[in-house]
Amino acid sequence: MDLIKQIFDSGVVGCGGAGFPTHVKLKASPEILIINGAECEPLLRTDRYLMIHEAEKLVSGVDLICRELSIPEGRIALKKTYTKEIEALTAAIEKLHSKVQLHLMDSFYPAGDEQVVVYEVTGKVVPPAGIPLDVGAIVDNVATIIAVADAVSGIPFTEKYLTVTGEVREPSVLKVPVGTSFAQCIEMAGGTISDKVMVVSGGPMMGAPMSWEAAMNASVTKTTSGILVLPKDGAIDRRRKTQLNHMLNRAKAACIQCTFCTQLCPRHMLGHPLQPHRIMRKIAMNMPHQDNNETTKDHWILPELLEDKDIRQAAICSECGVCEVYACPMGLQPRVVNSLIKGELAQAGIRYSREGDTWEADANRPYRKVPTKRIAARAGVGAYYHIDGHTYKEETASKVVLPLKMNIGVPAEPVISDGVHVEKGQLIAACPEGKLGANLHASISGTAHLTGNAITITEV
């Protein structure tokens, strides 16, 4: 059995992040395979559902990967507060006589950050701008391993588990075809309980906020972890609407250099040289002069600042949002500033240059972990945090929209003609030979049309 080929053929990519092609990640030779079950973002319940209801499939999938790829150790990392999940996984491990171990973590944010979970499990610090493999680890989340288990059974990646919660009548964990509309998913969760809402694709901390109108034109991809329906003009909506010039002017006027953003930064606490308070000070004090008093994304930073050592550290920001949602007493937005700087560095062709070869976590790190419940409240979603009884629902779709690019790397290339009939599971777009990418399969049966950068399938 060629496990890597099975995973490639099935089009499996990371389900919980940027969508790195799983067949490429597993080609490495790590010392440990870590399954991320921390469900980093508040409100999301997908991986927790899978750990309870698909525990044997998950454990057997980890065993299979470790055995076929000669990985010495496999661990599932999850929070010690996940009592039902721990019970289900422990029972599965005993029943299957598995060597998989559980690693129980505190309930903090961002426990599921890839570099954080590696440190929690191994005690090793992933270098700045590095990857877990730099310290002998590979990290995959729970849903990804479930997809790998399906791939071994010849089932391509055509269906997606996700959480729909917030201002909906029936908060739910759904299983739907990839490409299903957000509108259908929200209706599956009972529809909205208010007509003044916006949507976040993903979690409340790192997800992508969008207007209701934009959400009604969006579709589920392989990396969609959740759909949050939240109040319009609520805390998350207000933050996303803050104009750049207002954000920077507030930083110049209100930043008190308390250093809380740095002290609580998860990457800084791992020993990385990221110091958001220094970045905020230098940006605020060196804003370009604007005759019309307007700052735009095309002209907001002095080019010479990109040569500054502290400014360049923005490249290693994980954009977790602890700095702006939890740490800053003045309500400033270091995360957004860091994100913009990363874009400027990329546009200027400046790559991060790592200094040193050893990094040690801050001795105060155990006392500075941000409680998940508290950051949910600060983020403005505390009202939904205790929703526990999510309904599980499965449904097909009469129409799906499948983007050719749902992963890190290049888009898949169509292997079908416009207007042909396709069957569910059929390969409709392939990863170009020798490129980083993933295959794409029909998630329903119907007539396929090539529509720009996507393939639309309509049931007939």
UniProtKB/TrEMBL annotation:
<dbReference type="InterPro" id="IPR026902">
    <property type="entry name" value="RnfC_N"/>
</dbReference>
<dbReference type="InterPro" id="IPR009051">
    <property type="entry name" value="Helical_ferredxn"/>
</dbReference>
<dbReference type="InterPro" id="IPR010208">
    <property type="entry name" value="Ion_transpt_RnfC/RsxC"/>
</dbReference>
<protein>
    <submittedName>
        <fullName>4Fe-4S dicluster domain-containing protein</fullName>
    </submittedName>
</protein>
<dbReference type="Pfam" id="PF10531">
    <property type="entry name" value="SLBB"/>
</dbReference>
<keyword id="KW-0411">Iron-sulfur</keyword>
<dbReference type="Pfam" id="PF13375">
    <property type="entry name" value="RnfC_N"/>
</dbReference>
<dbReference type="InterPro" id="IPR019554">
    <property type="entry name" value="Soluble_ligand-bd"/>
</dbReference>
<feature type="domain" description="RnfC Barrel sandwich hybrid">
    <location>
        <begin position="395"/>
        <end position="447"/>
    </location>
</feature>
<keyword id="KW-0004">4Fe-4S</keyword>
<feature type="domain" description="Soluble ligand binding">
    <location>
        <begin position="162"/>
        <end position="207"/>
    </location>
</feature>
<dbReference type="InterPro" id="IPR037225">
    <property type="entry name" value="Nuo51_FMN-bd_sf"/>
</dbReference>
<keyword id="KW-0813">Transport</keyword>
<keyword id="KW-0479">Metal-binding</keyword>
<dbReference type="Pfam" id="PF13534">
    <property type="entry name" value="Fer4_17"/>
</dbReference>
<dbReference type="Pfam" id="PF01512">
    <property type="entry name" value="Complex1_51K"/>
</dbReference>
<keyword id="KW-0249">Electron transport</keyword>
<keyword id="KW-0677">Repeat</keyword>
<dbReference type="InterPro" id="IPR017054">
    <property type="entry name" value="PduS"/>
</dbReference>
<feature type="domain" description="NADH-ubiquinone oxidoreductase 51kDa subunit FMN-binding">
    <location>
        <begin position="7"/>
        <end position="149"/>
    </location>
</feature>
<keyword id="KW-0408">Iron</keyword>
<dbReference type="InterPro" id="IPR011538">
    <property type="entry name" value="Nuo51_FMN-bd"/>
</dbReference>
